[in-house]
Structures are given as C-alpha cells and as structure tokens.
Amino acid sequence: MLIHLTRTISRQDRQELLRRVALLLPGARARSSAAGLTVTGFFPAKAADAVPLLENLPAVLNIELAVQELCPLATNAAARKSFSKPLDFSGGFIFIAGPCAVEGEASYLASAMALKAAGASALRAPLFKPRSSPYAFQGIGFAGLKIIARAKKISGLPLVTETTDPRQIARLAPVCDMLQIGARNMRNYELLKEAGRSGLPVLLKRAMRATLKEWLLSAEYLLKHGTRDLALCERGDSVFSADNTGLDFAIMRAAKKTTGLPVLADPSHSSRERTLAAALALKAAAAGADGLLIEASVDPRGARVDGRQTLTVEKFSKIVGAILCKKTK
Ligand code: PEP
Ligand code: MN
Which pTM does this prediction carry? Predict the structure, then answer.
C-alpha cells in the first residue's frame, strides 16, 4: 500500500496517521519512501475498509493498492487446484462454441452435433439474453433447459450458460456445467455472490471499458463466495455500435499473468461481423488466449440475435484446424 502524503505534514498529523495505520491494519509495517508512506505486512482483506478511513486524514492525498492487495484470492495461483472434468482447461486450447441464443430444439441439437464434430470442447447454451432493447428477443428462458440437457446428452459436451439474475442459478445448476457472467453483469455484485455460492465453475467476461483491477475485483467476489473453478474472458470494449471492434490483448495477457487463471477471448461480440470474427479468433489464439468463446451454428442466417457475427460450422471447423495446427507445431 502506498500512501501519498501532502507536501508538508505536521508531526501531529504524521503520528495520527501512523496510529490509524496500526489500528486498522494490525501487524502492518510503515516506512517513509520518496512517494510517501509504504505500508506492508497487513492482511489484504483488511485494506478495503482501511483505505477510506485513512484517506479521510488531512495528511493523505490518496492511497494506491497493488492488485495483489486488492485481490488476494484472484492473484494467488498457487492456492488454486486445476479444473475438474467435464470442463478441462489444462488439456490444451478450449473452444466454447454455439449460437448466440438457444432458439429452437431442432436447430440447437443440429448445431451441437455439428460443432462437436468440428472440434468444440463445450457448448454455448444461452437461455437468457441481456438485450439493449426491451422489445428484442430475450431468450427462451427455462423452457430451453430440456433442449440444452438433450444437447449435452447426445453430444457429450459440457454446457456454458449465461446467468443474468441470482434467482436463475438454482434452476440452472443441475443442468449447466459452467455459469457465464456477461459483460453487462460483471459489476452485478449480488449475482457474483450467488454464482460463487453455487460452487459451479464460472466464466467471467470483462465489462466494456473495465480496467484490469475492476475485472479482477469481480473475480475476487466469485472466489470469496465459493467459486473454485474460474476462467476469464476478454470480449472487447464495443458497446452498441460497430465503431469499436477488436479485443484488448494487453489486458488479456495481464489478466493471465496476474492471476494464473485460464483467459479466453470472445471474438464474436467484439467484431459484430463473421469475417472479422474469424480473423480475430486467430489473432486471439496467437496473442496467448487459452481458448475461445465463439458464436457458431448450423443456421446463422436464421438467428434472431447476432446472426451476422455467427460463424458457419464449416468456418468454425477451419478455425479449429488452423489454431490446433499452430499450437502443435
Ligand atoms: C454472450 O456471450 O452471449 C454475450 C452476451 O456477450 P457479452 O456479455 O460479452 O456482451
Ligand atoms: Mn451474441
């Protein structure tokens, strides 16, 4: 923790600051440095509540916390076990593929089988869609549980399903293998707590324009509340228009380095167009992603949502081939 101090500081203010540090951060050691006061040796979970009280003091300009102090669980790779089956992130590059939304049984089952044959490792199985317009298709909801359960049975692939509301989780849990927290809900802290308590593996997407610290703090919520198997997913900063395409590979690599967690990339929502999505998928793999969350189906043209960015199964299969070929070279 680095406490930036005002240029001049009275002896009384300094003593008051040191007294509060000792009180709020038991066991901490404080030493003067060029930038102010460096504090070490405290229990990181104490810092979140200590900082506002320390910042109230007149001698303090502001306080900086390292990401390890903010997110002790998310940055502690050594304390983590690896993923267990059916989701295995240790066995090479991962492809979580499927349509933007589950729409109908026949098309979803056909996509599941074709994507499995093309090399998918898990299925996108979204039943609830967070849409910008309240009039737009919102997903088929729990009516789709039977469909995705069938797809899992016949394809043998695990299911990754977005949850948008804590009340959904208990009903999704018996069928879904991994909960997805979407970009819009990265800061939905009650949802993160409930997803954590479910004990299910979680895929946490970075919110549009979220910083590394914000993203990892959301990961910390999950881990604090019970998530054991966690993967992150970079999805770019695009909001509603197509003027901000692309993925932030720097933040993707920083997340991987800081946490040791698997970090996937979503080339679909950051591109909004399938040719661009295909190119971005290859770039993401080359940039160090551990896998892809990618929209692909047997019927992109018939999709009620995100059809233009959804890959055909043939194109998906080519991408799988190209990535695996490079990875095994
Ligand atoms: C999705 O992956 O289905 C999705 C809605 O993406 P995002 O949350 O990144 O917008
Ligand atoms: Mn989509």
Answer: 0.96
